[in-house]
Amino acid sequence: MNGYTDINSITDPTDFKSTRVPKLFEVDSLLRCHICKEFLSSPMLTHCGHTFCSGCIRRYLLNTPKCPICSKELRESNLCRNVVLEQLVISYKGLRKELLEKVQIQEEPKNVPQVTESLVIENAPVASTTPKPEVIYLDEEDSAFDDSIDEDLTILLESKKRKQTVSIDSILKRPKPPLQRKITTESGTCPICSKVFPIEILMGRHIDECLAVPKPSSNYASNSTYTNSHTSLGKAKSPSTEDQSYYQPKESNTVQQKLTKLDYSSLSTTQLKSKLSKLELPTNGTRNELETRYNEFLILWNANCDSVQPKNPKLLRSQLAKWESAIKVKANGTEKLGKAGWSDLIRQARSTMKSKD
Amino acid sequence: MPPKGTAQRRLLKEYQQLTKDAPEGIVAGPVSEDNLFVWDCLLEGPEGTPYENGVFPARLVFPSDYPLSPPKLTFTPAILHPNIYANGEVCISILHPPGEDPNQYERAEERWSPVQNVEKILLSVMSMLSEPNVESGANIDACKLWRDDRKAFEEQVRSDVRKSLGL
Questions:
Q1: Region entry Disordered: which residue ranges (chain A) (predicted)?
Q2: What is the domain extent for residue A47?
Q3: Contacts with A28 from chain B: Cβ below 8 Å
Q4: How large is the ipTM?
């Protein structure tokens, strides 16, 4: 991963300033966290009415028990999930790229040469499917969705690919509607394994099969999913099935215990290490490193519990590892900078001495 | 180094925003793309003040846990002002975290919090240039001069500005 693609993934509200609807700047800013300036991830509402990413506010409250905006006293226990807002952010993130293209002042002729005309027409009614796979690539961090959603999307991606391969056929045999559209309009999400299937298969043999076979990745599967079966099936018949992952978060899957803060002063290093190894975290490093590791994992974990789309704990661990290596790089970086800063200071001191003479 | 961490991503966003939509009289950006934690800034002296017509270079140095902790702002070279130390470092409430209160009379909401940003810091510094706060002075000599002999203070500032412009 080079720096260039990273920079492209870093968006900011001013993208809309030079478009036909500059006011979208406000919408874009309002959906962002005041602390990290990214789109809110697992937004939490404070009792003073402000909203931050769960991770950002938890990290801040570790050291300062106050609201960063109004400085009112604030504890983690005062935080409350804001589910609708989270869904709104996810939905907006999915359409942002398309929205930005649509409101651009210059009409971009990009679509015309690449896609055959008949495809454009075919795509029109189901246009909402096209931007969605891009969500995953827009923001690197977000590629770490939970497994089931990844599967949904790969299915969508596949159906999109197939559409392109059969496009010539479908031009020739106009009267026959493309097969894939049938699938997307009449497919449904299995309430047990969360995969997307054509409705006949889903209602016919799949559910029986799925109930018979215990789900291999049962990390998130819980009994409460059954209560959802009605709504998922009901929705499956509606044309907007493909949006289901956004509007119908798999909340029932989030049965996770939050981690608690540790009182480090009354904890020996061996005890701390055993806590870490219970969480399957590395136990190497200095005492200080162990404590910061636990603290950061606590934040990642608890923020993940707040999400409507919780990630697999494995992803959290790799996120933690990335964070730690970033911290180390940063530490080295500032050291180098320090040296440069010193030589700068010396130069400045000398020049001011000269000017005084 | 790719901008991976929270601090880098946020600094890059602020930079993007400042390049597209900077307030008047303010230019700021990272010294090099490899290190987003050091920025150079240019501030225009506010109109109607002795600093008018001056262009003041300053350096912002961000901590690795930005935005949890505030950056440091230093004028290079230092300028004569009650709230700027002799080494150029700016002493202004927005750059102080709420925990520490060196001068006891800063209201908490004027302090650093992660919701502040570079733009707000530089705007506060611009308003600090127009309205020094001698109650929490950093440069005692400048404070005295400002309070006791405003004319001499302003004359000194104007002559420093002329010198800095090579006039």
A1: 218-252
A2: 1-109
A3: none
A4: 0.75
